[in-house]
Design goal:
Blueprint lengths: L2 H6 L3 H50 L6 H33 L15 H26 L3 H43 L1
Helix pairs in contact: 2-3, 3-4, 4-5
């Protein structure tokens, strides 16, 4: 046996090291999943706190106050955004669990996460939904027109870039599906 052959040879020690690495990475993913669930609870509770803030405003200033319309539109939108982010964190936690821990997890079709690309696309969609809500919050309290214009342009560019990425991914998925169907048609 030469020195080169001993480097290539698979030994039980190499397999044990890989098995330990696999276990460590699964533990890290479980920590990330737990972190997402805890964060989702915190974010949803922050949304509930916004609800109490709305009630407090309405009790103190009244529905017909001068600021009620703007305050309610911004605060309610931010509250909905917090709920959305909290729920998305739960969806991501379930997706990571399904991808890295238990692929046989029985989830509804809309919640099924067959690939990491699906999870990334969901993240991009959430970003596109959250950015306008953030902009609305800044626009409602902005005093500097140039700042808000620059922020709006920057957010719009990010949203356009994400839309382009999602369009490419969608076309790629459709083309892959078309090729699969053509291949299945030829086999018959």
């Amino acid at each position: 046996m030469t020195a080169d052959e001993s480097l290539v040879k698979d030994t039980p020690n190499k397999r044990v090291w890989l098995k330990n690495l696999y276990i460590v990475t699964r533990i890290l993913v479980i920590i990330a999943i737990i972190g997402m669930i805890v964060t989702s609870i915190v974010v949803i509770l922050a949304g509930v706190a916004q609800l109490f803030r709305i009630f407090s405003f309405l009790i103190h200033d009244g529905v017909f106050s001068e600021e009620a319309g703007r305050f309610l539109s911004v605060t309610v939108t931010e509250m909905i955004d917090l709920y959305l982010i909290g729920l998305v964190l739960i969806i991501f936690a379930l997706g990571l669990y399904q991808l890295f821990i238990d692929s046989t997890l029985d989830l509804p079709e809309w919640l099924d996460t067959p690939t990491f690309e699906v999870l990334k696309e969901r993240l991009l969609i959430v970003i596109v939904v959250v950015l306008p809500v953030m902009f609305l919050g800044y626009a409602a309290i902005a005093t500097d027109g140039m700042f808000i214009a620059g922020l709006g342009i920057a957010m719009a560019l990010v949203m356009i870039a994400i839309g382009y990425i999602l369009a490419i991914a969608s076309r790629s998925r459709l083309e892959k599906r078309r090729l699969e169907l053509e291949g299945a048609g030829r086999e018959k």
